[in-house]
């Protein structure tokens, strides 16, 4: 006769449970537990009740919130393992021997190197930080390469820095409501790796040392601080191949006194942000290029992200120090929020080769200060370059004042440097900007623009030399090219929309009356064409065009002189272009 099934949630935990176990063994539900398939399963509602159990013949289902799971008792000497698990996530020693020397309750049905944040004793949504518990969780994560720490739905507070030091580790949420939240407005951060700047080479440059994890992944995690704060929420200190997927990074409210950074990178290579949302009042991602003996901070990719500066910020902010942290007492400068800021520090001689921003929505909503999209700052004197060529494609820059900006940070911080980074842009939409491409007049400061759409803004470019290729469209701009079109090149010269109805190339035809020695042609170009670009053809043969000359080339017309006047009316075809660099 099969055993009767008794649901564990219908059995009250109490002093008589042990007797109940002995009396009705056959009536309890037979459920699989670890390697004890078919073992009897009884309930415990708290860790304390589990520790107090003296009847250890049966597996126990622990139902305490966030620590749920099946445990069986192992009588082996587990003292070393218990000592390495202070949060009692996997091993719960009995109250009679908290060292675990006489055994411990062992969590069953676990996946190798996978743990749940709640197992370590944290309580979600309680608005307090349990440092001992969360420290135990990160201690476990740093025991072995390839470990995964699952973050359940809810808000989980912490008050001090938490580092990831092993390779292949993952922080993984289950949906968009899994919040890791630094408590208050302090400087608590999630940090990947640990750089050591104490060794200085013979040339005075820092030698790169430290602990470098490889392949760290953050998936479905909200890094959202309580209120605004100075400095970064996440720091990639020394790491390769760091991935952020479907994460939110920002703060809960704005501040009139603080300047928040979402993610700051220090010594980082191959950093990927995919389908992430940023919302910080100062900088979403701060990329630091420091002067070291091995300069290889490179390979940054943003794909399908939402990058906003939508929280209110101060009208002025103190100058950030070399590590990106605001320096108290420094001379305040105008607040300039930014989606991505690349800071090339004094002495750094390296430029980023690989930077791509693809399919992102970058915008500002209600923030104080004019926002830049991708901005660079160089502390080197003279002509330097933070980025060799960035790939910017398929993005929407909405209300971003300066989508690409190599000027404002250098001017604001009086660095004396001129950044000559280059950008390849394609298929982007720019709505209501001030200056889309805001660069210096140095000839190496270049942008290629392919199939972009510029609408309802002030200017397309200032300073930059821009190569317009393919079908670009410029509409309803106040002064699209304040430096003049002569600084730009247009491969699609016949497209009027590309240069806001300023015609760069034109062609036409005109009837030349019989006997005419010259004729004036109205060209319709925005400026005088170059004489060398003017080409002519007689629609009915070129015998009378064996010799001709052009003069009086002006803003609206040019004159063509014929060596041999036509004997009958002839149709003259012409073409011409405006000269530009």
CATH architecture of the largest domain: 3 Solenoid
**What is the percentage of strand-forming residues?**
35-45%
The name of the CATH topology of the largest domain is Pectate Lyase C-like
Class by alpha and beta content:
mainly beta
Q: Low-confidence parts lasting 5 or more residues at pLDDT below 50?
A: 1-38
Number of helices: 5
Largest sheet, if any?
Answer: 21 strands, parallel
Overall number of strands: 49
Radius of gyration: 34 Å
**Helix-residue proportion:** under 10%
Average pLDDT figure: 85
Terminal-residue CA separation: 95 Å
What are the defining features of this structure?
mainly beta; Pectate Lyase C-like; 3 domains; 21-stranded parallel β-sheet; eleven-stranded parallel β-sheet
Provide structural commentary.
This protein has five helices and 49 strands. It folds into three domains: 8-107, no CATH class; 114-421, Pectate Lyase C-like; 505-577. The chain is mostly beta strands.
Short account of what is shown:
By secondary structure, the protein is mostly beta strands. It has three domains: 8-107, no CATH class; 114-421, 3 Solenoid (Pectate Lyase C-like), CATH 2.160.20; 505-577.
Give the helix/strand layout.
Elements: H1 17-23, E1 41-44, H2 47-52, E2 59-62, E3 69-74, H3 79-83, E4 91-92, E5 104-107, E6 114-116, H4 131-141, E7 148-151, E8 154-158, E9 162-164, E10 170-173, E11 178-182, E12 190-192, E13 194-196, E14 209-211, E15 214-219, E16 222-225, E17 231-245, E18 248-251, E19 260-274, E20 277-279, E21 283-289, E22 298-303, E23 306-309, E24 316-318, E25 332-334, E26 338-344, E27 355-358, E28 361-364, E29 372-378, E30 382-384, E31 390-393, E32 396-398, E33 402-405, H5 408-412, E34 417-419, E35 423-426, E36 429-431, E37 435-438, E38 446-450, E39 453-455, E40 459-462, E41 465-469, E42 473-475, E43 489-490, E44 505-512, E45 518-522, E46 535-538, E47 548-551, E48 557-562, E49 570-577
Parallel strand pairs: 1-2, 6-7, 7-10, 8-11, 9-12, 10-15, 11-16, 12-17, 15-17, 16-18, 17-19, 18-20, 19-21, 19-22, 20-23, 21-26, 22-27, 23-28, 26-29, 27-31, 28-32, 29-33, 30-34, 31-35, 32-36, 33-37, 35-38, 36-39, 37-40, 38-41, 39-42, 41-43
Antiparallel strand pairs: 2-3, 3-5, 4-5, 13-14, 24-25, 44-49, 45-48, 46-49, 47-48
């Amino acid at each position: 006769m099969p055993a009767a099934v008794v649901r564990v949630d219908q059995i009250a935990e109490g002093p008589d449970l042990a007797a109940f176990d002995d009396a009705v063994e056959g009536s309890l539900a037979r459920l699989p537990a670890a390697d004890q398939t078919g073992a009897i399963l009884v309930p415990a509602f708290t860790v304390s009740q589990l520790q107090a159990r003296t009847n250890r013949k049966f597996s126990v289902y622990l139902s305490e919130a966030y620590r749920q799971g099946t445990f069986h008792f192992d009588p082996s000497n587990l003292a070393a393992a218990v000592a390495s698990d202070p949060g009692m996530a996997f091993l719960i020693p009995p109250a009679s021997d908290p060292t675990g020397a006489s055994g411990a309750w062992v969590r069953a049905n676990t996946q190798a190197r996978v743990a749940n944040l709640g197992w370590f004793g944290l309580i979600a949504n309680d608005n307090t930080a349990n440092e001992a518990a969360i420290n135990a969780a990160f201690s476990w994560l740093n025991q072995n390469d390839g470990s995964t720490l699952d973050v359940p739905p809810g808000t989980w507070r912490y008050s001090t820095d938490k580092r990831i030091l092993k390779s292949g580790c993952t922080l993984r949420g289950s949906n968009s409501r899994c919040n890791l939240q630094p408590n208050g407005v302090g400087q608590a951060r999630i940090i990947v790796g640990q750089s050591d700047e104490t060794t200085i080479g013979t040339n005075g440059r820092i030698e790169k040392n430290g602990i470098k994890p490889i392949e760290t992944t953050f998936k479905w995690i909200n890094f959202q601080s309580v209120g605004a704060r100075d400095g970064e929420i996440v720091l990639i200190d020394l790491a390769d191949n760091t991935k952020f997927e479907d994460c939110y990074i920002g703060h809960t409210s704005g501040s009139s006194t603080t300047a928040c950074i979402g993610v700051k990178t220090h010594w980082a290579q191959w950093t990927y942000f995919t389908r992430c949302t940023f919302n910080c009042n100062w900088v979403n991602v701060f990329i630091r290029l420091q002067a070291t003996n091995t300069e290889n901070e490179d390979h940054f990719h943003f794909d399908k992200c939402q990058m906003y500066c939508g929280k209110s910020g101060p009208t002025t902010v103190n100058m950030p120090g070399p590590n990106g942290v605001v320096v108290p007492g420094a001379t305040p400068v105008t607040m300039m929020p930014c989606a991505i800021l690349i800071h090339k520090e004094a002495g750094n001689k390296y430029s980023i080769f690989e930077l791509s921003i693809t399919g992102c929505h970058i915008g500002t909503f209600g923030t104080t200060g004019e926002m830049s999209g991708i901005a660079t700052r160089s502390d080197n004197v003279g002509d330097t370059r933070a980025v060799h060529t960035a790939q910017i494609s398929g993005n929407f820059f909405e209300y971003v004042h300066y989508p690409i900006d190599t000027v404002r940070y250098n001017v604001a911080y009086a660095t004396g440097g001129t950044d000559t980074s280059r950008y390849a842009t394609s298929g982007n939409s720019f709505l209501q900007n001030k200056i889309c491409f805001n660069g210096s007049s140095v000839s190496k400061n270049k942008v290629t623009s392919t199939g972009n759409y510029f609408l309802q803004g002030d200017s397309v470019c200032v300073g930059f030399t821009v190569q317009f290729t393919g079908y670009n469209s410029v509409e309803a701009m106040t002064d699209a090219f304040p430096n003049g079109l002569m600084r730009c090149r247009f491969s699609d010269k016949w497209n009027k929309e590309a240069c806001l109805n300023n015609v760069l190339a034109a062609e036409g035809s005109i009837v030349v009356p019989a006997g005419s020695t010259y004729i004036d042609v109205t060209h319709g170009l925005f400026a005088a064409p170059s004489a060398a670009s003017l080409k002519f053809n007689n629609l009915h043969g070129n015998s009378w065009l064996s010799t001709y000359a052009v003069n009086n080339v002006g803003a609206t017309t040019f004159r063509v002189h014929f060596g041999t006047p036509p004997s009958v009316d002839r149709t003259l075809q012409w073409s011409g272009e405006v000269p530009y660099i």
